[in-house]
Design goal:
Blueprint lengths: L3 E7 L9 H7 L7 E7 L6 H8 L5 E6 L4 H15 L5 E5 H5 L1 H7 L5 E3 L4 H13 L9 E4 L5 E3 L21 H8 L3 E4 L2 E3 L9 H5 L3 E3 L2 H15 L3 E4 L8 H13 L5 E5 L2 H6 L2 H10 L1 E5 L7 H6 L6 H13 L3 E3 L2 E3 L6 H17 L3 E2 L2 E3 L7 H8 L8 H5 L13 H18 L7 H13 L6 H9 L7
Helix pairs in contact: 9-10, 10-12, 15-18, 18-19
């Protein structure tokens, strides 16, 4: 029997994480019946030509969508496929369609179906319907265009227990291409889906309804041992929203690494309250198993602002987690967000102060600072839109949306400039010192402590010599 082709595409971007979303949905299909072809605009040569060739005679074409610059490539490839193959069903999934279910179809006539939320079960049912010609009205978790051109949104789909999903098949991609792009043998893995927390600046509560599911440690150990033997990776990057949600599970995973002799370093996401609740012995176990770095979102150095954001952590927990990591030589990324609507100057300065203190605690600590930019799905965005703020209106506008390097209109040019310069000097001051960088780092530290950023010759020189990477 000839297998049905299902072609999936990951748009161009500047990061090289393995396309875990596409791997997950592709692994849902019976390989005896379907040929899943994943093409990645980031690592494959001539990706558009490869997509057009692969979609010849294919059952469907799927694209993962991320708001911002990746949408531009996604649109170009989608429109090219539609022009070459007018009758192929085209499906978009990912974060953008989870937030813009109907708008995506109304904005772009080349797209037939959008998928919302967790896509594994949805995609399996969707592919079966497309093959049999069954009514799409019975597939939960999608939005689709009828033959009359009407856009219909079906009921949502509950978050499915990840332990009932099949093992992700990494053989659907050329793993070595990602190792080469990353310049390290770093393996990507998602062990949980969703988020239980209620932060008002985040879209997770909207997409996942504060639900969370995770793979059991025994199964993870078995899977990772298998892939480690096959690919010999030296670092493991957990792409979970909140990896440390259950500390007993995390320590069981760490024990799996030790028991199975999986020799790799690893990194994951951690909330400060989770880190503060972990015992010294639990931290030691994670370190012994290879833990090299955690990401701990601080968001604000003002407890008042943190409470307003419904972050549900205390600054004391941030410092306690930082100390536990520093004493074990575990690197930490501590992201901050400033420039919220109506945020006071004191709140911004508190964030800069805390960022400076954390950055000084250990040479492996970094404190990236971002400006808040309204993005659908968060409560704060709902509030500012109700007050008259206008979001991008079309998918083309969203392709120009920059939520990494831009700010809201309520942030003055002076404040933006001050924070931007602080970020540069704080990063310089916190790097591991060498004899030839020590003087510049000492000056950078003085600038951050005094918030004196006039005549920033070092930054001007760095900006000219090192072009900024456009992340969004």
């Amino acid at each position: 029997m000839t297998r049905k082709k299902v072609v999936l595409y990951n748009p161009k971007a500047v990061f090289y994480d393995m396309p875990l979303a596409l791997l997950s949905i592709g692994s849902m299909l019976d390989p005896a019946h379907y040929e899943v072809i994943i093409i990645d605009g980031r690592v494959d040569d001539r990706p558009l030509e490869a997509v057009l060739e692969a979609t010849e005679g294919a059952l469907c074409f799927g694209v993962t969508s991320l708001t911002g610059n990746p949408l531009r490539d996604a649109l170009e490839v989608t429109r090219s496929v539609r022009a070459r193959h007018p009758n192929i069903p085209i499906i978009w999934g990912g974060w953008h369609t989870s937030l813009f279910a109907e708008e995506t179809l109304r904005d772009e006539p080349a797209i037939d179906i959008s998928v919302q939320g967790q896509g594994e079960g949805t995609f399996r049912e969707l592919v079966a319907c497309l093959e049999s010609g069954a009514d799409l009205a019975n597939v939960n978790g999608i939005c689709y265009r009828t033959r009359k051109g009407e856009v219909v949104k079906n009921p949502g789909r509950a978050l499915e227990d990840m332990n009932f999903l099949p093992r992700v098949n990494y053989e659907l991609i050329d793993v070595e291409k990602y190792f080469k792009a990353k310049k390290q043998r770093q393996f990507d893995y998602i062990s949980s889906a969703g988020c239980r927390f209620r932060c008002t600046f985040c879209a997770d509560p909207f997409v996942f309804s504060r639900k969370w599911t995770a793979i059991e440690p025994d199964r993870m150990g078995e899977e990772l041992e298998y892939w480690h033997k096959k690919y010999q990776f030296t670092d493991l990057n957990f792409q979970d929203e909140t990896f440390f949600t259950k500390r007993q599970r995390v320590t069981a995973i760490a024990q799996q690494f030790l028991d199975r002799d999986i020799k790799t370093t690893w990194a994951g996401t951690m909330r400060a309250d989770q880190g503060s609740r972990m015992s010294e012995e639990e931290f030691d176990l994670c370190k012994a198993s290879g833990l090299r770095r955690v990401l701990v979102g601080v968001e604000s150095g003002s407890q008042e602002m943190m409470d307003w954001l419904a972050k549900d952590i205390k600054l004391e927990q941030v410092y306690e987690t930082a100390q536990k990591c520093a004493s074990r030589d575990i690197d930490v990324i501590f992201p901050f967000i400033v420039g919220f609507p109506d945020e006071t100057d004191k709140s911004v300065l508190d964030s800069l102060r805390v960022a400076r203190e954390l950055n000084s605690m250990h040479p492996g600590f970094t404190t990236p600072i971002f400006f808040f930019k309204p993005y659908p799905g968060s409560k704060i965005t709902q509030d500012v839109v109700a007050k008259g703020y206008q979001l991008p209106q079309t998918i083309e506008d969203w392709a120009d949306f920059d939520y990494i390097g831009s700010s809201g209109p309520w942030v003055s040019a002076e404040k933006y400039r001050m924070v931007d310069r602080f970020k540069f000097y704080n990063k310089l001051a916190g790097r591991k010192r060498k004899w030839y960088t020590a003087p510049a780092q000492w000056i950078a530290g003085l600038r951050c402590d005094s918030l004196f950023f006039e005549w920033p010759m070092e930054k001007i020189l760095a900006d000219r010599l090192i072009p900024k990477q456009q992340l969004s």
